[in-house]
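Render this sequence as a predicted structure.
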Amino acid sequence: MKHYGKVLMAMGFLALTACQSASKPETAAASQDAESDRCGASQYQSYVGKPLSSLNSQRFEHPVRAIPWNAAVTMDFNLNRLNFMADKSGNISRVYCG
C-alpha cells in the first residue's frame, strides 16, 4: 500500500508540473509593456515610497491623479493618465497608467 501511495504522489506532482504555462517571448512582453505604459509611469517609479504630497510641486506632461488611501475614484480608464496610489501612511505605493 505504501508503494502505491508514493507512486500516486509522484504522478500528482508530474500532473501539476504539466499545468504550468509556457513563458511568453520577450519581444511580445516588451510590446505589451510599451502599450500599457502610454502615460510614462515607468519613469516615475522612483516616487514609490515618497509622500503623496511630494507631487504638489511637480509638473507632468500627462493628466495626473493622486489617489489617497481608501479614497473613492471614478472607474473611467484612461491610458494617458498617470495615477499615484498612496498607502495608509500617505506614501506612494503604486504608480500606473489608467
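Summary. The two ends are 57 Å apart (CA to CA). Residues 39-98 form a domain with the Trypsin Inhibitor V; Chain A fold (CATH 3.30.10.10).
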